Every structure is written in C-alpha cells, then in structure tokens.
C-alpha cells in the first residue's frame, strides 16, 4: 500500500510550489514593514547589555602558525592558542616598537614578533596585557572594556543553539561601510526577504511582530490574516515577546522549496539570531554578529558581519551531512555571502542616508 500524501510529505523536506507567484505580483510588504516597528526593535536591542564582548571570528580559524586578528573599534586584537591549546588574546601592537602582531608567527604556543623576536606566551608583559577571551565552540569573542564601557560580564551571551557535535556549522565574514546598528536593523526587517532575495526566499509572511505598542499604542502586529501578537516561548508561532516570526520557503531549485517558520530576536546590541522553530531543520540557528572595526581611509565607519550558521536535523540521513561537513562548509559560506552581498548594500545605504540626515526612518 502506498503511503498517504501527508505521510510522504512528512518523510521528505522538499515541497513543490503549486502556484508560484511572479516576483512583481507577490503581496507588497511595505505597509507592514513600518519604520517605527523596526526602529523600536532596534532601540530595544541597543538598550540590552553586551558585557563588552565582541565577536572576532570563527573558532576553526584559531590555530596553526598565525594568530586570528581583527581590529575592533580601532583596537588591534590578536587571538592564538597556547601550548596547551587554550585561547590567548591581547593587543595586536607589539609593546617593543609597535610591530603588527597579526603578521607574526606562532611557534609552540608562543607569538613571536617578526620585527625583533619578542616572544609573548599570553602572560602580561611590560606594555602588553592579555584580554578576556571566550570560545563558544563556533565563534571566538574578546572583551574590550574600554571600548564597550559597560559593566563587564564573565562571558558573552551566547544564543541557544544545537550542540556542535550534532550540527554542521559554517562562519561567513563580510565587511561593509556602515555601523553595527545598520546591520542589526537589516536583520530586524524580515519583510524584505522575498523582495530583496528572490533567489533564496519565496512565499514569505510575517506572522508575528513585536513592539507595535511603541509604534501605534496597541501592542499588536498586523499580519496578512489580521492582527497577530508574537507569543512567548512555546507559543503557537514560536516567537518570544520580542521576536519576529516568519513563515517562509527556502528555494532549492525550480519549484522545489523547503518551508519553515523562523523567529528573529536580538539578545544584545550587536547580535540578531534566527531560530528555525518549525519545519525542516527545527532548532537550527543563524547568528548575525556585527563587530565595529574602525574608520576607513575616508573616515567612514566599517563593520564586520560575522554570521554563524549552525544547522541540525533529526532526520537519520543528517549523519551523512555531518560527515560531509568539510565539503558543505564552503557551500554554506557561499550561500551566506550571496545574501550579504545584497544585505550589506542595504546596511551601507541606510548608513549613508543616516549620516546625511536623509534617512526616512
């Protein structure tokens, strides 16, 4: 006996779109994407504590013969592993004569300055103090108290994610001429997905959005089916009181799609997390971290987008994907890069308008 269609749908993640809607005939989202709603969500994110922690890069990029380096708000930072494999972080300027330690090799867990051979093993040296550092298994964070200016915390706020051993993870890094708030604002606008990224997303509907009380006093978000309030954890839409819940289909090829429900939240000022709460890959997350770098040669701000994709699935076949992770990671980074090619243009445009007082929001 053949299985019922509903049973077949439960076995396979792909769906066939019955009535594809042309890009220019899909339902406009601009009325729902109210600037006041997005701005209110951004302000709530900016008001949350970060503990002065900044994402530097991927855990996998720390090791070998060179340190991981990043400029954070104008501060040069280097991260490497000591002889025991533990993380060490500190200023990227040699205390002797200012050499860039980012260009210096690591030998047996010691960073050796390539100008004059000064060796740093992670212990304090005259003019050089180690920085607090945290490895969450996917990303590396450093704490810069003089940059953040907040009450420091022992560790960063790491979003809930699948166990690394049960998932496939990849980290994409891109740089744009903008500030962290422009990156966060982009991610807190889920309405642009199917319009701005039609190659990846179709049939997008925002089914729950928070903060309308900040915009129009009623505390509710207008959705295609009427007013919908984003519920708390465990609610029907999977959103929190401060999450944007979205029903969307990821394009695979032609009419083949993977429908999911995704919830976007901002747990701290420079981070937006997308949780898959229903559909294929439930529990998977995409974390977008915005790290300020410092001005470019024209004095414009630069921000690094460090996006971690942590994919998981309860399907038996996912074990094969985990074994193929080294082959999948470049593909995952390429997919993220394609999206951020456009989204960084969005963030850069937002900053350009804000900096000249022309931003309509």
Structure description:
The protein is α+β, with helices and mostly antiparallel strands and 361 residues long. It has two domains: 19-49 and 160-355, START domain (Alpha-D-Glucose-1,6-Bisphosphate, Chain A, domain 4), CATH 3.30.530.20; 53-148, Rieske [2Fe-2S] iron-sulphur domain (Rieske Iron-sulfur Protein, 3-layer Sandwich). 21% of the residues lie in helices and 32% in strands. It has eight helices and 19 strands. The chain has helices at residues 5-11, 35-46, 145-148, 180-187, 193-196, 212-216, 318-323, 325-355, and strands at residues 15-16, 53-58, 68-72, 75-81, 87-91, 106-107, 110-112, 119-120, 133-135, 139-143, 168-176, 201-208, 221-223, 226-228, 244-253, 256-268, 271-279, 285-295, 301-311. A hairpin with a 5-residue loop joins strand 4 and strand 5. Helix 4 (180-187) crosses helix 8. The longest helix has 31 residues, at 325-355.
Please give the structural blueprint:
Elements: H1 5-11, E1 15-16, H2 35-46, E2 53-58, E3 68-72, E4 75-81, E5 87-91, E6 106-107, E7 110-112, E8 119-120, E9 133-135, E10 139-143, H3 145-148, E11 168-176, H4 180-187, H5 193-196, E12 201-208, H6 212-216, E13 221-223, E14 226-228, E15 244-253, E16 256-268, E17 271-279, E18 285-295, E19 301-311, H7 318-323, H8 325-355
Antiparallel strand pairs: 1-16, 2-10, 3-4, 4-5, 6-7, 7-8, 9-10, 11-19, 12-15, 13-14, 15-16, 16-17, 17-18, 18-19
